[in-house]
Amino acid sequence: MAQIICEDVTLGYDGKAVQTGITFAVEAGDYLCIVGENGSGKSTLVKTVLGLLPPLDGRITFGDGLRAGEIGYLPQQTIVQQDFPASVREIVLSGCQGRRGFSPFYTAQDRQRAARAMERMEITDLAGRCYRELSGGQQQRVLLARALCAAKKVLLLDEPTAGLDPYVTEEMYALVRSLNREDGMTIMMISHDMTAALKYADHILHVGACPFFGAKEEYIRTDLAKKFAGEGEK
Questions:
Q1: Could you list the mean pLDDT of each consecutive 10-residue stretch along the chain, which spans 234 residues?
Q2: For the chain, which end, N or C, has fewer CB atoms within 10 Å of the first or last residue's CB respectively?
Q3: Rounded distance, CA 189 to CA 152, Å?
Q4: Domain range annotation of the chain
Q5: Are 145 and 117 contacting, i.e. CB atoms less than 8 angstroms apart?
Q6: Is the four-CA dihedral 206, 42, 29, 2 of positive or negative sign?
Q7: Residue 33, Cα to own-chain centre: how many angstroms?
Q8: How many C-beta neighbours within 10 Å does residue 91 have?
Q9: In 3D, which of 18, 3, 81 has the Cα closest to residue 211?
Q10: pLDDT tens-digit profile of 32-77?
Q11: With a threshold of 0.70, does the pTM exceed it?
């Protein structure tokens, strides 16, 4: 069943279009990688799907009982975020904010959900640690646990391995893969790593002058993929 449907969407901000003609559908359990040149509108697409920006044209709809507020989101980290002086438990728990409605307090269910997310990301032993004291890989696990607290069925990840060393990068890809395969979580991931995109994704959305959406196997055969990914990354 389709969970996210984009129909002829124009992306942009302040009334200025950065990408037109985006059409795709994300089915339950999909692993979709969003690729494309820098400045092509990938992050703008993410913000539009999340409802942080309105589409300039076209429409985005949700199915399978999904709402925009139930999508777990792992944004790109900034230097300021990496130095955030909160505990791991506090950051993970903050992923439950969208579930609280108008209540200013976390519930016992919220705390249980955060505990399960930390256990799933294997960071329970870090719960009392200060976030800014952690390694880059540990911080990404914390943020992924936070996203799991918000996620009902879909995780949307914006360059989750940026700045990580190769070993930790492979660990992160393995975690995301297991969430998709073992937990049934639908994955939408922006990636500049074409090797990983073509290894793990089921479907590819290429954002740019010639948009493409389809199965990975179809994308690999296109001239667009050969030009963008290079012969060595097929």
A1: 94 90 95 91 92 94 88 78 83 82 77 96 96 92 94 93 91 95 96 91 92 94 82 42
A2: N
A3: 16
A4: 1-66+155-234, 77-152
A5: yes
A6: negative
A7: 9
A8: 19
A9: 18
A10: 999 998 888 899 999 999 999 999 999 999 999 898 778 999 988 7
A11: yes
Write down the residue that tokens 């913000």 correspond to.
47
Question: What is the per-residue burial (b if ≥16 Cβ within 10 Å, else e) of 161-179?
Answer: beebeeebbebbbebbeeb
Give the helix/strand (H/E) hosting 22.
Answer: strand 16-27
In the numeric block, which tokens belong to residue 153?
């069925």
Closest of 33, 1, 51, 92 to residue 213, by C-alpha: 33
Q: Going by DSSP bridges, is the β-strand pair 203-207/186-190 parallel, antiparallel, or unpaired?
A: unpaired
Residue 230: per-residue pLDDT: 61
Query: Cα-flanking dihedrals φ and ψ of residue 152, to 5°?
Result: -95, -50
The owner of tokens 């948009």 is 211
With tokens 């955060």, the residue in question is 114
Six token digits for residue 170? 């492979």
What CATH class is the domain 1-66+155-234?
Answer: alpha beta
